[in-house]
Design brief:
Blueprint (H helix, E strand, L loop, with lengths): L2 E2 L2 E5 L10 H11 L3 E4 L4 H4 L9 H12 L3 E5 L7 H6 L26 H18 L5 E5 L15 H15 L2 H8 L26 H29 L4 E6 L8 H5 L4 E6 L1 H8 L3 H6 L8 H10 L6 E6 L17 H11 L2 E6 L25 H15 L3 E2 L5 E4 L2 H9 L8 H14 L4 E4 L10 E4 L7 H10 L2 E4 L22 H4 L1 E8 L5 E3 L5 E11 L4 E5 L5 E6 L2 E4 L1 E3 L1 H15 L10 E6 L2 E6 L5 E2 L9 E4 L3 E2 L4 E5 L2
Parallel strand pairs: 2-3, 2-9, 3-4, 4-5, 5-6, 6-7, 7-8, 8-9, 11-12, 11-13, 13-14, 14-20
Antiparallel strand pairs: 1-10, 15-17, 16-17, 17-21, 18-19, 19-20, 22-23, 23-27, 24-26, 25-27
Helix pairs in contact: 5-8, 6-8, 8-15, 13-14, 16-19
This protein binds beta-D-galactopyranose.
């Protein structure tokens, strides 16, 4: 796979600062060890203050100054922030929320992905920028738009969305009858006799039909794909040889990132470990323990996920440098944590880690957001940590990201399906996947996260925690890969139209697993179903009937199969706790011929080529000697890891 030379970058807004500062800023970036600088993603009102009146002189000057300092520029298209004059020209371009309320201009991302005239405007401005800057020396990459979907903007319930959705359905189903059958519209008299009768699935009296919602989610996701592709097409022609990138987010599931990435060279993401912990962390106790470090698996998961997208190249486009401004609470990282997050990203294959942002803004919405420098220009903590990372990288040998032993399948439509019909208040598909991912990481595994249509050959073990709606190609790919495969509860429980499959769950997976789910139940917090000899299910449990060819490896205390295997394929019929999952995974790893090592709750490892990176997420020092082999050479750090400590070792 790819051999990378890890580099650092920064996000910079020349339009926020007087021109006299730019040269000094550029020189100090270089001094700090920065190689890449991202600019202009929100600058539309500055270079086109009124329709067709352009003012590019300032941007030309900024590009020249940055490039002359030796920096590599990531230029952006500005389509996340359409200016006021444009919204005035086409007031219906704004998105509409679930309650039918228009999202107003005055911050950002106030556009509707379905609005075709706005899409034409996005194409127009991209074409203008691409003609001017496509081949400009110094510009090495383009970021398209900024954080698709941020602030809940993927789904819009606008007129444009209704029109677009009806056309999309007409193409997909060809006849209203076919749609009625696929959705089961006979239930509650929801049948339509014309596509124009289909409504958007909001504001219904009680829940809308899940098949209807699922198709709307698919439609909305494809609008993001099309919006992105339209800009990529232009840049491919006019910016030859430049990498095309988008910056995705953490725990963002509203569109299919694998599909969007097909048109990109690099899938990057914006990593805010503490903001995300505050937003998505499990419990207060958990958040307190990891307050200044972040969840030990959250960053790694997204590095692995986005490394599995598109061309399999990944950057961190925005790295949290200190307290942010947008979570319910915004604590500061441990000293050293920015350094740790940076090295961890490189260990997972990031080519560039770029900090958000160069200097803290003294005005507007993000005044409380830390940066590498304070608003007065004095260096903040992260500036020094970025410099250390740069020095340390210079001393490390280059290493290749190799194929992992374990592939984990992540499927966006399955996530939507479990959001649409969770059947238990706390059944969160993403959390279910994270449970499995964490289980593998606690056993020291390197993991590749892949879409369900990926080539699985070469993997020893394929882990499929949450694939509701497998298709025949997937079943075939698993068989042909020769890998073992282990499936989590609810896999195969719906058809692609969101109906219960003929012959019951796990539907098409019965061919591999030879079991049938007879009944499923969801369980309130605190209720556990113990498994004989250790561990339990909570939240979700199933009663499963197995063919004679199936071996039941573990049973619940009530005698229900908990973990059953036929040939190389296994099924787990509930949401396992850490103890049970560890038992299951060890048995799968053993059968797959893979080794494991228990990292401990707060230490994690990741191997890239011959280098092993070991990180400490605990708020106390930890001994990591068990993760260093007798013939390994410690290149950075030591076995006793301080708070925010890391070690990088060359494996012997
Ligand atoms: C990201 C966004 C940036 C900035 C940052 C603050 O979501 O792309 O523009 O707002 O968050 O953490």
């Amino acid at each position: 796979m790819t051999k990378i030379k890890p580099s650092l970058g920064v996000c910079y807004y020349p339009e926020h600062w007087p021109q006299e500062k730019w040269a000094e800023d550029a020189a100090r970036m270089v001094e700090c060890g920065i190689e890449y600088v991202r600019i202009a993603e929100f600058a539309w009102s500055r270079f086109e203050p009124a329709r067709d009146q352009f003012s590019f002189e300032w941007l030309d000057a900024a590009i020249e100054i940055l490039a002359n300092a030796g920096l590599k520029i990531v230029m952006c298209t500005p389509t996340a922030t359409p200016p006021k004059w444009l919204v005035e020209e086409m007031p219906d371009m704004v998105a509409v929320d679930e309650n039918g309320v228009e999202r107003k201009w005055g911050s950002r991302r106030h556009y509707d992905f379905s609005h075709l005239e706005y899409r034409r405007e996005a194409i127009r401005i991209t074409e203008i920028l691409a003609r001017r800057y496509g081949e400009r020396p110094g510009i090495v990459a383009w970021q398209i738009d900024n954080e698709y979907g941020c602030h809940d903007t993927t789904l819009s319930y606008s007129r444009a969305a209704a029109d677009g959705f009806r056309d999309w359905l007409a193409q997909k189903y060809q006849s209203p009858d076919a749609l009625n059958r696929a959705w089961g519209n006979v239930f509650w008299s929801m049948e339509v006799s014309d596509f124009s009768q289909v409504e958007l699935p909001n504001l219904t009296v009680t829940e809308p039909n899940p098949s209807h919602v699922l198709d709307f989610r698919r439609y909305a996701s494809q609008q993001v794909v099309a919006f992105n592709a339209a800009q990529c097409d232009i840049l491919r022609k006019r910016a030859p040889g430049r990498d095309l990138i988008h910056n995705f987010m953490g725990h963002f599931l509203e569109f299919d990132h694998f599909d969007v990435s097909v048109d990109l060279d690099v899938a990057s993401w914006d990593s805010y470990p503490l903001g995300n912990l505050e937003r998505f962390g499990r419990s207060d106790e958990w958040k307190n323990w990891y307050l200044r470090a972040g969840d030990p698996d959250f960053q790694a998961f997204h590095h692995d996920l986005y490394r599995g997208c598109g061309a399999r190249r990944m950057w961190v486009m925005e790295q949290q440098p200190g307290p942010v401004n947008w979570a319910p609470w915004n604590p500061a990282p441990h000293p050293g944590m920015v350094r740790l997050w940076s090295h961890e990203a490189f260990a997972h294959g990031a080519e560039v880690v770029s900090y958000f942002r160069w200097r803290q803004a003294p005005f507007a919405q993000e005044q409380f957001h830390a940066a590498l420098n304070r608003p007065d220009g004095s260096p903040d903590q992260a500036y020094f940590e970025a410099s250390s990372v740069k020095r340390e990288l210079a001393d490390l040998p280059s290493a290749e990201t190799q194929r992992s032993g374990v592939a984990l399948i992540f499927d966006y439509p399955s996530q939507w399906a479990s959001e649409i019909q969770p059947q238990g208040q706390d059944f969160d598909g993403f959390a279910h996947v994270m449970t499995w991912y964490r289980g593998l990481r606690l056993l020291g595994q390197n993991i590749d996260i892949l879409p369900s249509n990926a080539d699985l050959s070469g993997y020893a073990l394929v882990v499929v925690p949450h694939l509701f709606m497998p298709d025949l190609d997937f079943v075939q790919a698993v068989k042909e890969s020769g890998a073992r495969a282990v499936f989590g509860a609810r896999c195969g429980s719906r058809t692609t139209s969101h109906q219960i499959p003929d012959g019951l769950a796990p539907g098409l997976l019965q061919e591999l697993l030879a079991i049938r789910v007879q009944r499923a139940e969801s369980l309130r917090p605190g209720v556990e179903i113990p498994v004989v000899d250790g561990g339990s299910f909570s939240r979700w449990a199933e009663q499963v009937e197995a063919d004679a060819s199936v071996t039941v490896n573990l049973e619940t205390v009530d005698g229900q199969p908990a973990y059953a295997t036929r040939d190389a394929y296994s099924y787990v019929s509930g949401w396992p706790d850490e103890i049970l999952l560890s038992r299951i995974l060890k048995s799968e790893l053993k059968a797959a011929g893979l080794e494991w090592i228990e990292t401990g709750e707060d230490l994690r490892i990741r191997d890239r080529g011959g280098l092993r990176t070991i990180v400490n997420y605990a708020p106390k020092p930890l001994d990591a000697s068990h993760l260093i082999g007798p013939s390994d050479t410690v290149l950075i750090g030591e076995a006793m890891l301080d708070v925010a400590g890391l070690a990088i070792v060359q494996r012997g």
